[in-house]
Amino acid sequence: MGKHWPALDAPSDQSELLLAAADDFSPTAVEERDSGLRVFFATPAARDAAVDSLRHQFSVRAVDVDDEDWARRSQESLSPITVGRITIVPSPEYRAPSTGSVVVIPPSMGFGTGHHATTRLCLAALQTVDLHGKFVIDVGTGSGVLAIAASALGAARALGIDDDADAIAAAKENLEFNRVTNVTLEIRDLMNEKLPQADVVVANLTGALIVRAAARLMQAVRPGGVLIVSGIMATEGDDVRRAFANQAFVAAVQEDEWLAFTIRSA
């Protein structure tokens, strides 16, 4: 029997407010569907708590999604995406572009495929930094897509961390798909374990978690290094700016309702 992922469904006209409210329950992924939004959670308990809390304000219902069915449908509908010098494809059978690097990320519901706006923002931001010879940490690595992309962009090595063992298992499979040997993966809890220092840290999390973890994230950036944060809704932008008030913001980029910030360590 395939794995089932706990999720909730909601109408698309409630998307921005609902996502902001659901953030307190640490959603792992969001799928945009014709009928509305599907928000995924790490555990049924987290999903059920979100449904109980949100049903008073939103039209939500709990669902369990079969991973294999979702992956098969997604692979049929997903097309390659290109962000600068990186093209992400859902299977090795897709024809590679003539330029740039190809990253293979088969769809799995728990973890990003690269098609979400926040992942695209991070991929673009990584390409504004010279990664050659650098050490990169990908916080909340999920599928490993950003760590793998960092390797393709010239990083000497990358470390992907996630507090979800299933994410690390999926990312390890993706390292094999892409024949990447300079990326390591570890199960780590950002809020309870100190990170090593790196030249570049990328954290595609949630706005609320980035605010809580701001000091920890900056401590992981070497002097003169760069922190890239995304997963931030436009409505959370001011909170994130305040959390990094003493840091130098290099860039702020927005796609739809999502933001990414690039911050340089003093």
Principal-axes shape call: globular
Fold-level CATH name of the largest domain: Rossmann fold
Distance, first to last CA: 51 Å
The H-level CATH homologous superfamily of the largest domain, spelled out, is: Vaccinia Virus protein VP39
Average pLDDT confidence is: 87
Explain what this protein looks like in three dimensions.
This protein folds into two domains: about 5-65, YebC, transcriptional regulation domain (Alpha-Beta Plaits); about 110-265, Rossmann fold (3-Layer(aba) Sandwich), CATH 3.40.50. The chain is an alpha/beta fold and about 270 residues long. The chain has nine helices and 14 strands. It has helices at about 15-20, 45-55, 65-75, 115-125, 145-150, 165-180, 205-210, 215-220, 235-245, and strands spanning about 5-10, 25-35, 35-40, 60-65, 80-85, 85-90, 100-105, 135-140, 155-160, 185, 200-205, 220-235, 250-255, 260-265. Helix 4 (about 115-125) runs parallel beside helix 5 (about 145-150). The strands form three sheets. It has a seven-stranded mixed sheet. The protein has a four-stranded antiparallel sheet with strand order 2-3-1-4.
